[in-house]
Design goal:
Chain A: Residues 4-120 form the Response regulatory domain. Chain A: This is Phosphate regulon transcriptional regulatory protein PhoB. Chain A: The modification 4-aspartylphosphate is found at residue 53. Chain A: InterPro entries: Bact_response_regulator, CheY-like_superfamily, Sig_transdc_resp-reg_receiver. The complex is a heterodimer of chains A (122) and B (441). Chain A has helices at 12-24, 38-44, 61-70, 88-96, 109-120; strands at residues 4-8, 28-32, 49-53, 79-83, 101-104. Chain A is an alpha/beta fold. Chain A has a single domain (4-104), classed as Rossmann fold (3-Layer(aba) Sandwich), CATH 3.40.50.2300. Chain A has a five-stranded parallel sheet with strand order 2-1-3-4-5, with helices on both faces. In chain A, α2 (38-44) runs parallel beside α3. Chain A is globular. Chain B is of the alpha+beta class. In chain B, strands 1-4-3-2-5 form a five-stranded mixed sheet. In chain B, β2 (358-363) and β3 form a beta hairpin. The two termini of chain B are 42 Å apart. Chain B has three domains: 11-124, lambda repressor-like DNA-binding domains (434 Repressor (Amino-terminal Domain), Orthogonal Bundle); 133-204; 313-441, no CATH class. Chain B has 17 helices and five strands. The longest helix of chain B is centred in the N-terminal third of the chain and has 30 residues, at 103-132. The chains are: A alpha/beta (122), B alpha+beta (441). The interface between A and B is medium-sized, with 24 and 25 residues.
Amino acid sequence: MARRVLLIEDEPNIIEAVSFILSRDGWTVHTHSDGASAAERVRAHPPDLVILDAMLPGRSGYDILQELRDAEETRGIPVMMLTARGQARDRELALSLGATHFMTKPFSNAEVLDRVRALAGG
Amino acid sequence: MAEPSSRRMLAGGRIRARRLDAGMAQAELARQVGISPSYLNLIEHDRRRIGGRLLNALARALDLEPAQIAEGAGGARVERLSAAALARGRPTSDAEAFASRFPDWAALVETQAEMIETLKAQVAGLSDRLAHDPELSASLHQVITAATAIRSTASILAGNEALDRDWQARFHRNIHAESLRLAESSRRLAGYLEAPGEGDGAGVAALSPLDQVEAALDRLGHHVPALEGPNPAMSPEEVAKGVAGLDEAAQDILTVWLRTYRADAAALPVETVARGWRETPEPLALASRLGCALPRLLRRLATLPPGAGPARAGLVTSDAGGALGPRRALDGLTLQRGAVACPLWPIYEALSQPGRPLRALAMMPGETASAALCYAVSTIEAGPEWISPPRMVAVMLMLPSDTAPAETTRRAVGPGCSLCPRDNCPARREPSLLPTPSRML
């Protein structure tokens, strides 16, 4: 059965590109664009990996990450954070909140693919 | 015996050092100034004092000013060179010798040290701006997001020979759209960073979107007749599109502002508020009399046509993060945006006490400085869904200080810690760049 990735990102063209490369690699990709309801989406349909953008409408990715880590049913899901802010303090914040990996934009498709495979055991 | 940390060179030593640097033999220098080599030797070892004609002659022969021999390098220059050396972990003991022997090089080092400190301060200021300027941060985010989409999409096109035509067309369209966004956001960012006076002729490129909106609202007098009445002539979107000199982001911001304006105007018609204000010129009492929410009335009082409400009014809104919306200044007085504002303004106190109305006479520092009668309140708005986080907004109306009731609490406020000269402020977070009274003593 194909491994499932939930991409929580609000930029349509980034969604399309990342979904394309992951789908071609055999992943089932679901997407979610609204920060306010993202955590609920993860709880309702737990994926094998979450790719989470830091800046989302309705709620920040860091808040969502914290909620996922606070809940027992979502604590163990690997989360890769994507952010346009690549300073050390942003990385430290993401990792301190429980991000499994932190990647800055712009990223390379190959790097995303490698990391998804490593985190979700693909 | 160890040398003292700051050995002071005497006149003889300076003469000798300069002579050696010039590659001049002792005999030659002695001949030029008309003394014997042995006498010069005594002078160079500070066993004979010199002055007057001989000092001048030696100075001429060594291409120095007499004072440079007699006193050495100026104390101030030596101090600056020592500070520059210390800043880089270098020993300072030879600062005077260096300044005396190589005055031109010492001047160059001094100038470059000053330039380094200036640049460091500018970089620190820019870094701080990135951290604290939400508009700059948002513009950069747009640029990076567009670049990310282009990179990712282009990589797919470049690496995928088996890509079918539909996907190719789709990705080409995406790249095109993102390249347009990148171009626009880059242009806007460059314009925002440009100095005032540069940019296009309308000055749009030099103003941030919020600045553009504020300028537009100032031109309109913060009153929009087209949105008044039970059947307004235009929609907020149409009004925003018709305002000249706004880029797309500014139009978006103005549209949101105008939607709120329209809702306020529908709930509180001009005639109702004007009549109420004439009879009850106090916001809290008037809100109770009109049966309306205080935040709505405060906004409305700042957007009435001339003669319909307070003679002059200012308005500031803030979200929970301290980000200010479009401002209306009261006689030039308003809160700073982008920089770290003074937390003592009532609007920030209101954020910590939702629903509680606050009134204070806010007084800026200085004997002739401005003051404003402030009414502030914050509200919590529910999100669109059950799990949505609430949104807090604070509103502060500013009226002329001479309208303040006698019993109004006075509150000392400022322009932000870095520019505030107040001494002993309990809310001070960082030293002021301006001299405070205690520093001037």
